[in-house]
Fold this protein.
Amino acid sequence: MEEFKRNLDIPYTEELTLYAPEGCEYCNNTGYRGRMGLHELLVGTDEMKLMIQTRARIDEIRTQAIKDGMTTLKQDGIEKIFAGNCDLLQVRKVTIK
Ligand SMILES: [Zn+2]
């Protein structure tokens, strides 16, 4: 929750909109057109390089990466949902494990 607040910076206001697909003739009534990637970028800080070299546990690497400011796949997806670029269903399809 703290990481989401720190990284997302989306204020909860009356105007906050959760978009859902709505078809039209331009998108063949699917509500979708084209593709957009969700991205997660792990920055190779000195500490991160050391953790990789010493084969640290994946949950420790993940915690450090988030501490270093990594935006996770899910966070990127949530930003794109609120920007109206995709919807919750599409993001959940690629971020649920
Ligand atoms: Zn459309």
Q: What stands out?
A: Residues 23-24, 26-27, 31 surround zinc ion (CB under 6 Å). The chain has five helices and no strands. The first helix runs from residue 2 to 8. The chain has a mean pLDDT of 87.
